[in-house]
Automatic annotation (TrEMBL):
Name the UniProt record assigns to this protein: Permease
Gene source species: Phaeobacter gallaeciensis
Record-linked Pfam families: ArsP_1
Family: Belongs to the UPF0718 family.
Lineage: Bacteria, Pseudomonadati, Pseudomonadota, Alphaproteobacteria, Rhodobacterales
GO-annotated cellular components: plasma membrane
Length: 343
């Protein structure tokens, strides 16, 4: 019986590993070794060099995120939803890009705000900007695509939040979305809960053993998370550069017009890549002929359509609000791409 239990546990562990990015990396590299051994070393060296180049950004991002979590700085975000509606929209759009939330932590946070009567306009501003940028994403984007692109994405995140917030405010002025909430969920999928608005950050977190422990656990967990996704991203980038003809990419999303940008946004919505995988792949696509405006539109549309972000919206609000979220996301992505291309 004990042997059966051990075998079952080993099988479950193997199944869990097969669902990880590490398994995908191994499968891709084995496939290259079998089908094109002559290119295997080139692809591995490309991926390792790219990962090493981004290493310093990963380290700083992980340290920053662990610090924010250990100090309880996310509690400051709740204060953005106090005061006048216009002020709330502005603060929510800005804090959405700074909040170090995990994807499931957003759900009870937003549910609580809506249940307490926070205006949907401010909540939508936060919801649209939050998936687009955070401190680690900013650094990783800068490492892969350069600081102009990273800063452009950060500005686009805040702008999209403002665009969505004021659009919802205008629609609510005509009686639309009078009762947006579907249901209230009080706990998150990971049990971490939402930050409390009256909590105060402890900036010198090292004075408390529990906060020091949280810093260590967050540092390890986020470091491994970023490492596995970026390793996968750079392997995929190496394969893209090696095997996808440049003229194919340039034909779809190259050029200076609006059409390539719109195509990139529409492709980016269903072909979601998380914010850690997308920058390296887009770097490869730009090398192959993708325009920078199309790259920006692809990245923003993809982030808005992330599974955690959409699941949070769908679980909490009515279908018409969900539709508005997606519509504002894709239209904002196209506008961001056009403006970034022009500038």
């Amino acid at each position: 019986m004990a042997d059966l239990t051990q075998n079952l546990g080993a099988s479950q562990a193997l199944l869990r590993w097969l669902k990880t990015p590490w398994a995908v990396i191994v499968a891709l590299l084995v496939s290259v070794a079998v089908l094109d051994m002559g290119n295997f070393q080139t692809i591995v060296i490309f991926a390792l060099n790219a990962l090493a180049h981004t290493g310093r950004y990963i380290l700083f991002a992980v340290l920053l995120l662990a610090y924010l979590k250990a100090t309880g700085a996310e509690a400051l975000v709740a204060r953005a939803f106090e005061g006048r509606e216009v002020r709330m929209i502005f603060l929510a759009a800005v804090f959405g890009g700074l909040a170090p939330f995990c994807s499931c932590e957003v759900i009870p946070f937003i549910a609580g705000l809506l249940a307490l009567g926070a205006p949907l306009s401010a909540v939508m501003a936060f919801w649209l900007s939050s998936p687009l940028i955070d401190p680690p994403t900013l650094l990783i984007t800068a490492g892969a695509l350069g600081w102009p692109f990273a800063i452009g994405k950060a500005v686009a995140a805040v702008a999209l939040g403002l665009f969505g917030g004021f659009a919802i405010k205008a629609l609510m002025g005509h009686g639309v979305f009078a009762n947006p909430l579907k249901q209230v969920q009080k706990t998150s999928c990971c049990g971490c809960g939402a930050p409390k608005a009256d909590a105060k950050p402890v900036w010198a977190f090292w004075s408390e053993p529990e906060r020091r422990q949280r810093f260590r656990s967050e540092f390890v967990a986020n470091g491994l998370f970023l490492l596995k996704w970026l390793a996968l991203a750079y392997v995929l980038e190496a394969l893209l550069v090696s095997y996808v003809p440049a003229d194919v990419i340039a034909g779809l999303v190259g050029g200076e017009g609006v059409v390539p940008i719109a195509v990139a946004a529409l492709v980016g919505m269903p072909a979601y890549l998380n914010s850690y995988v997308a920058p390296p792949l887009l770097a490869g696509l730009i090398e192959q002929g993708m325009s920078v405006g199309a790259a920006m539109a692809f990245m923003i549309a993809g982030a808005v359509s992330s599974i955690p972000a959409m699941a949070a919206v769908w679980s909490l609000v009515k279908p018409q609000v969900f539709a508005a979220y997606l519509g504002l996301g894709v239209s904002g992505a196209i506008l961001s791409g056009i403006l970034f291309q022009m500038l």
